[in-house]
Amino acid sequence: MISTDTFKFLSDLQKNNSREWFQANKERYEEAYANVFDFAGELIKALSKADTGVDASLEPKKCMMRIYRDIRFSKDKTPYKTHFAIGRLTRHKSVEIGYYLQIEPGNKSFIAGGYWMPQGEHIKAIRQEIDYNAADLTAIIDKPEFKKDFGEFRDQEKLKTLPKGYDADNEHIDLLKLKSFIAYHELTDNEMQKAGITGRIAFLCEQIHPLNVFLNNAID
After folding, report:
1. Residues 2-13: pLDDT tens digits?
2. What is the C-alpha to C-alpha distance for residues 106 and 162, in angstroms, rounded to an integer?
3. What distance in Å separates the CA atoms of residue 20 and residue 90, rounded to the nearest whole number?
4. Could you name the domain of life of the organism this protein comes from (predicted)?
């Protein structure tokens, strides 16, 4: 579970996002990092049982994102992210397809999976797969439990015009117009601090897994 101290550190960082404050609170950061590191290790083991693409021996540090922001090309010059993130968990062909966990105070934590904003040949391949095998995708996203945990998959951001090569009367035009193919579930601070939360997140990822398989098959 994520500790109260970890959430308190991140909350304080949101209010004091400077190098001076961070250096003065480096010990608190290291304790928070260790907490998330341990959490990531537990999550990796739990996920490996639900998805063979997750290696149970994966080192947590390889899937933990840096807290330091790249501010070179950003108008926002605050030096630190105000959340911890865990990603790069799978061994699939595309590193963009997998699971992503964000840990952020204020009930802003979430688990997500799928493919965010594919471009170029990938978006073309995914749309082609939908056109040929939409039944495989709808069998995943229209399950009552999937909708209960992730909402309506078709409600993601869409193209305002038709995708090239597809007609308005295509039976699955609502899916073909999607810009992203993401399953997303919010997690409260209270949930993240409860025993058994790794099991809950692993269960959510188990539901996302068939979506990831569909997307990987599309671009393979």
Report:
1. 999 999 999 999
2. 38
3. 36
4. Bacteria
